[in-house]
Amino acid sequence: MRNAITTEAPLHKRRRLYTSTAMLAIGALALSACGGGDDDEVDAEELIEEAGTGAMEDFSAGDTFVATEPVTFTQLYRDHPNYPIQNDWRFLTYLEEEHNVTLETSNAPLSDWEDRRSLVIGAGDMPDFIPIFNPGDETQFVAGGSLLPVSDYLDLMPNLTEKIEAWELQGDFDGLYQADGKFYILPGIQEEPFYEYGIAVRWDLWEELGYDEPESWDEFADQLRGVQEAYPEMTPYSDRWELNATLNQAAAGFGTVGGWGFGDGMQYDESADEFVYAPTTDGFRDMVGYFAELVDEGLMDSETLTQDDDLAIQKFASGQSAAIFANDQEILNYRESIEEVGEEDWEVRLLPVPAGPEGNVVAGGRLWGGLVVNADVAEEDDFVALMQFLDWLYYSDEGLEYAKWGIEGETFERDGDQRVLDENIDINNLNPGAPEALNTDYGFHNGVWMLVHGSSVDLMNSMARDEVIEFREKMFEKEVQPVDPPRPLDDLELERASISQNALNEATNTNVAQFIAGNRSMDEWDDFLAELEGQGLDEYVELHNEAYQRAQEELGGVEDDLED
Q1: In a designed cystine with 399, which of 7, 153, 245, 392 is the match (CB 3.0 to 4.6 A)?
Q2: Phi (first) and psi of residue 3, to 5 degrees
Q3: Are 54 and 100 a contacting pair, CB within 8 Å?
Q4: Which helix (H) or strand (E) holds 105?
Q5: What is the pLDDT of residue 171?
Q6: For 479-529, how does the pLDDT look when each residue is reduced to its tens digit (9 = 90+)?
Q7: Closest Cα partner for 128 from 74, 92, 72?
Q8: Which of 62, 14, 68, 72 has its CA nearest to residue 377?
Q9: From CA 173, how far away is CA 425, in angstroms rounded?
Q10: How far apart are CA 154 and CA 133, in angstroms?
């Protein structure tokens, strides 16, 4: 039986939380199926005694992790071309000098990241840990036994367990559990939802036409019509990321999922108390129809779903379009591109995601990509030290600040409650023109070791420009979509589901692009759904609902036992 984290925190007004009772239910389900029992329990004190090389005997939340003797941990490193890894980065040397930790990296280029990640795991060559894993990506590796069931070892991670309770993250973590009652990923966590994506528009044109920030997608369409009328030579909206970022953010307002957030395509229908495949819902059809209508009216570039990002940015910077999706960093690149063509009077603003037919709603969930740990490390002498180090770096206030800002007295100073970056170092345009960069030259502010920009609201906003903080505050005013209840599939179900999922998602992606681009009429939507049925839709949905009902039955049984 895994260790459950008990919390009696009240329901947050913006979140549906599934309590530790639900976690116990999932564990009970797996144990009854697999014949597990008390032998599965993990004793943290015993681990420290038996595998305590380098481990701190009394490591608690808020403590600085310093290995009691030098230790070396290995990791697969995602090498970003904008800040290629350097072995003498201060991030690495400081860990060695002050924390007795040496990180040895095997490096994989960003362009080949997912393939290399899968290869090393499948070949049995996995290092101690691998960052940059989105929740759900780990599922395919669970059956092979390569990944550590990290939920068994939460007692070794006091900073993480403290934040799960303090930030009321239990409901989010419930969705990580596999059918064996364990979870295998340490996700990035957020104190509050982190919003960075919105619509970048030529605000000088918006002001000229007397427009405010659009409150709804319909109002945004009306504004695009006004731009089209005033500037007929312009295609008002030409998007990037093959529209995936936009659909991901817009979906909640239409009551569905889409784009980067499509996942396995399943979403929970609370009124029917069952899971459905998103493309079969009215909300998904309405969302696709909305963007198809934009293309049909000439308001959105028909090349949006096929053009590369550079071309989309070029169109925006040259005045061929007036709107493009963005995040709080990319908008700086847009402004720089505009300045390069000499249009210094143009103004660009990041607008919050408009409301949809389902209201002013954004997607729920506060877990981001995280890391997985090699199952074999549980047999190593320095296993406890590794878990303590990961807990400190990725979940302690001190470690989170270290990964984001670096070292006080070297890369930054404090001015009261504010952190001030050294004047010779830049990141996020804090010191424009500075000769060094915090990530490129020092290794800090690096997504491999900084999963969610600092996790806490304080750290997430600590480097943000005023306009970004204002943007986030507007996004915070939106209603957060509830997190779906858990539906863990067993190994056989996962194998069956993956076959159907690949076929269904491929058919969905292809047809969504055709509908929006106008290559297929929205009048053929029912034909599209019939084609999905031919790809095993009914069996796929049934599989997920069987898993959901099984989890709910176990939840009811555990609740009865607790009452008795």
Answers
A1: 392
A2: -85, 120
A3: yes
A4: strand 101-109
A5: 87
A6: 988 889 989 998 889 889 989 999 999 999 999 999 999 999 999 999 999
A7: 74
A8: 72
A9: 37
A10: 19
Q: Could you tell me the sign of the dihedral formed by the alpha carbons of 323, 329, 335, 338, in that order? A: negative
SS3 call for 537: helix
405 vs 420: CA distance, rounded Å? 9
Question: Can you tell me whether residue 102 is helix, strand or coil?
Answer: strand
CB 348 within 8 A of CB 19: no
One-letter amino acid at 404 equals K
- Give the phi and the psi of residue 48 in degrees, each rounded to 5: -65, -40
Give the 3-state secondary structure of residue 135. Answer: coil
Rounded to 5 degrees, φ, ψ at 216 are -135, 165
DSSP string, 410-466: TTEEEETTEEEE-TTEESTTSSTT-SEETTTTT--S-TTT-TTTTSSHHHHHHT--H
Are 347 and 204 a contacting pair, CB within 8 Å?
Answer: yes
Measured CA to CA, the distance from residue 415 to residue 558 in angstroms comes to 52
Determine the Cα angle at 146 with ends 61 and 158, to 5°: 5
Q: Which residues of the chain have pLDDT under 50?
A: 1-39, 558-559, 562
Number of residues in the chain: 564
393 to each of 139, 173, 276, 376, how far by Cα in Å?
Answer: 24, 19, 38, 21
Phi and psi dihedrals of 103, rounded to 5? -100, 120
- Reading the block at residue 421, the tokens are 């970056």
In terms of Cβ atoms closer than 10 Å to its own Cβ (0-12, 13-18, 19+), residue 216 is middle
CB-CB neighbours of 228 under 10 Å: 18
369 and 189 Cβ atoms separated by less than 8 Å? no
| Among 410, 373, 415, 409, residue whose Cα is nearest residue 390 | 373
The C-alpha atoms of residue 366 and residue 181 are separated, in whole angstroms, by 21
Contact assessment for residue 299 and residue 224, using Cβ atoms and an 8 Å cutoff: yes
Rg (alpha carbons) of the chain, rounded to whole number: 24
207 near 167, Cβ under 8 Å? Answer: no
d(CA 553, CA 440): 52
CA distances for 271 relative to 274, 275, 532, angstroms: 8, 10, 23
Three-state secondary-structure class, residue 369: strand
The predicted pLDDT at position 481 comes to: 87
Do the beta carbons of residue 247 and residue 353 sit within 8 Å?
Answer: no
Please identify which residue in the block is written with the tokens 């005694």: 49
Residue 12: predicted pLDDT? 31
Strand 266-269 relative to strand 274-277: parallel, antiparallel, unpaired?
Answer: antiparallel
Which residue is listed with tokens 């990180």? 103
CB 459 within 8 A of CB 401: yes
Answer yes or no: are the C-beta atoms of 53 and 67 closer than 8 Å. Answer: no
What is the spatial distance between Cα 430 and Cα 425, in angstroms, rounded to a whole number?
9
